[in-house]
Amino acid sequence: MKTLFRVMAIAVLAVMAMALAACGGGSSGGSTGGSASSGPVTLEIGSKGEELAFDKTELTVAPGQTVTLRFKNNSAVQQHNWILIKGGDAEAAAIANAGLSAGPAANYLPADKSNILAETPLANGGETVEVTFTAPAAGSYLFICTVPGHYPLMQGKLIVK
Question: Which contiguous run of DSSP H or E holds residue 50?
Fold first, then answer.
């Protein structure tokens, strides 16, 4: 009976050790890439010089992950922002159109932000701005620049998986 108990105890300890080993070993936080992990992550994205485009069109995070997005405006003269949309093209177009009348004082964003999940401040040429937010549920989310005339050219996807 003692032998059976010892064998079972060793088996349970071995399974627990393997489970712990499988969960560990990764780096935590500070990532600047687009890979999803469970800890906080920093994503870096910028504009493509004077083009109306982001330098990355796809970013990836995990659901519920704390995300700090650092946006560098690589233009010398144009203003840009980074806006994460709740919804698709119709919501993005509505936000961009409403932002036109809101103007730069309102970051080219409408007063009703119910379809905006995260937003950076407006960045002048050469500036870096950031926003920290909690990643939404699994899915694909559109990000855009709402400076007049920049959407639909300046857009990409945040993949949450």
Answer: none
